[in-house]
Amino acid sequence: GAAMLLWLWLWLCVCCCPARGLRIHEYLYFQVLSPGDIRYIFTATPAKDFGGVFNTRYDQIHLVPADPPEACGELNNGVFIQDQIALVERGGCSFLSKTRVIQEHGGRAVIIADNAYDNDSFYIEMIQDSSRRTADIPALFLLGRDGYMIRRSLEQHGLPWAIISIPVNVTSIPTYEMMQPPWTFW
């Protein structure tokens, strides 16, 4: 059935298409600790050819939605992004430009959610733009549905940020305890 097809597709991607560049284990996981209604483990993919890596595990760090959401210029809430992680929306400028804006505001990392709110399965490969600029902080891509649900929960609770743990080592978590979002197909 569907599981067999998924397994076959994954096998083909890993074994037969090394030139494509997307290695199947290059996922990074984070868990929302608060607010409780979205206390799930989310899956993100690191930028392909820019940005840093997580050398530190953050047990409790703020995930702050950027204002404006696309983070293509000066932020209205930049002071809250200092030493935290920003949640940004795709669109308006390059992935690298967004990452640099967050870095300039002192952010530790950026999570860029797809602007297609119904996207619950397709990961975009974030690559360099043509500007020859660089960024030092980690940049992750998040499915549009996940980003939307996080922002919606924060709005409903009147909260300025979520509290997350990142990265999360999912191999140490028993499958029955893996709390994926209910809207995600696994």
From TrEMBL:
Indicate whether Signal appears among the record's keywords: yes
Annotated localization: Secreted
The answer to whether keyword Glycoprotein applies is yes
Query: Which Gene Ontology terms of cellular component type are present?
Result: extracellular region
Major localization listed first in the record, in broad terms:
secreted
Tell me which InterPro entries the record gives: PA_dom_sf, PA_domain, PRADC1-like_PA
Instruction: List, for all copies, the residue spans of the domain called PA.
Output: 63-147
Give the UniProt keywords, A-Z: Glycoprotein, Secreted, Signal
Signal peptide stretch: 1-21
Function per UniProt: Plays a role in the modulation of physical activity and adiposity.
How is this protein named in the record?
Protease-associated domain-containing protein 1
Q: Which gene encodes it?
A: Pradc1
